[in-house]
Amino acid sequence: MPHLDKLAAALIVIAVVVGFVAPRDRHGGGAPGTNSAAGGTIHAASSRSAAAAPRRPPKKKAPPFNMAKAAAAARAAGANELGMVPILMIHRVMAKPQVSLDRSTKDLYDEFTGMAKQGYVPITAAEFVKGQINIPAGKHPVVLTFDDGSITHADFDGAGNPKPDTAIGVIQRVAKENPGFRPVATFFVNRDPFYGGSKPGVETMRWLVRNGYEIANHTTNHKDMRKMSHDEVAKEIGTDEQMIENATGKQATTFAFPFGSLSEAHLEWAQHGTKPVPWNFTGMFLAGWKPSDSPYASSFDPRQIPRIRDKEKIKEDDCKQYCSTAWLEWLAKNPDKRYTSDGNPATIAFPQDKMIYLYTRYKEWACPY
């Protein structure tokens, strides 16, 4: 698919400017100068009440958790499940990057290895938006997302194994070298995904799903949706959805706006549809520039979830502050802002003073300490 890096870069810069003039996040969860609706080109704010929110299911037939014991365990782990979660936005992965959105294989390997050492555990975008963040105590979730279905994301050698210089090859290598680093990611695909690979795109998508990866919707032709009518939006999303379902037998749970561009109308048009097949996205993702709020926080809007552009600290597009290397460093220096798991899927644990940030729907799972 086309990689219009200049347009994407411009959108990121616009988001940065907006961040400096917009109000601070009401929870104070972000870095100075950020706001909870950043990312892409947003023309109107939306309230969470208008969108379907994820629900974290308790263990089946489990007795009520012992609050005192759960709180003690959460305190020991330094749990904060209302903290921020980095969602990385990655495009092509290449030994020698050709355009600004490309990421080198070596840089990707080094970054993922560094995250593993810091205690990050990958989860899919679908798991994130559903609130299914089941990772060990003291660990931090990270969502790895890859846009456009590039052959550099998934291709295979003659024996059917992932090529080592592809995204899945890097992920599986890091997982093998760092037990606990789950080999999962989300691939937002357009038409003819993974074109030119050793397998047909349909077979590659099926392989990914069988191996725990997520295939998600990114429209058929990767066009700027701001210029589209309702019917055009429906066709772009619906035909991509049909392709995904025909290949995987599953509805897509998540969606990424091409270029991160949207308006209030597109938030409504994109989330639900019926033609040529029905779709109902639990979460919709923007272009990158800041970590996401926790899916359990009242500030979280599942229809416009920010991501972080995956890039080292370079001057271009203000990456010294707003790309992945800079944000991961910021989260490491501000651990009270970062999501840290209590290791218990039946509870949502956090320091007592953060209770005001919990979305009220989740009170029965709350474990403040």
UniProtKB/TrEMBL annotation:
InterPro entries, sorted: Glyco_hydro/deAcase_b/a-brl (IPR011330), NODB_dom (IPR002509), Polysacch_Deacetylase (IPR051398)
Pfam families named among the record's database cross-references: Polysacc_deac_1 (PF01522)
UniProt-annotated stretches for the region Disordered: 29-63
Domain of life of the source: Bacteria
Bias kind Low complexity: ranges: 44-54
The keyword Signal appears for this protein: yes
PANTHER family listed in its UniProt record: POLY-BETA-1,6-N-ACETYL-D-GLUCOSAMINE N-DEACETYLASE, PTHR34216
Key words of the record: Signal
UniProt name for this protein: Polysaccharide deacetylase family protein
Subcellular location: Secreted
Residue ranges constituting the NodB homology domain according to the UniProt record: 140-369
